Fold:
Amino acid sequence: MEEKEELVTKITITKQAEEAVSQIVARVNEGFDAGRVTRQDVASWVLTRFNETCGDGDVHQIRAEFFNEIALLENILKKAKLSGSVPEELKLALMGQANISLGGAKKNKRGLTNKLTNGQHDESGDAA
Structure:
């Protein structure tokens, strides 16, 4: 029998992922008289197969699951420092967060009362 030299790299996975791998190993090995698979075998098989079929939708879903707003803000800040500018939509959001309006002081709007209807005063006080 020919020996294969394999390069092995260790990774750390979550408890939930380890339980899933162990369940797959148990299912594969149950009634399998022609060999035995290990957790490493199954994890390697799953990852290499997923890599072959991983599409843009999968990438998007993984990114959404691991989205980190702090990391995003740090990267935006780094780019802003390098370029000397901030994207306009972010500038507007930051100004809103700081309660700063773009045009300076805002005019106070008059609230509706029962004495104003369509811009006309009602002398009786009842709205038309």
Notes: The chain has a mean pLDDT of 86. Residues 15-29 form the longest helix (15 residues).
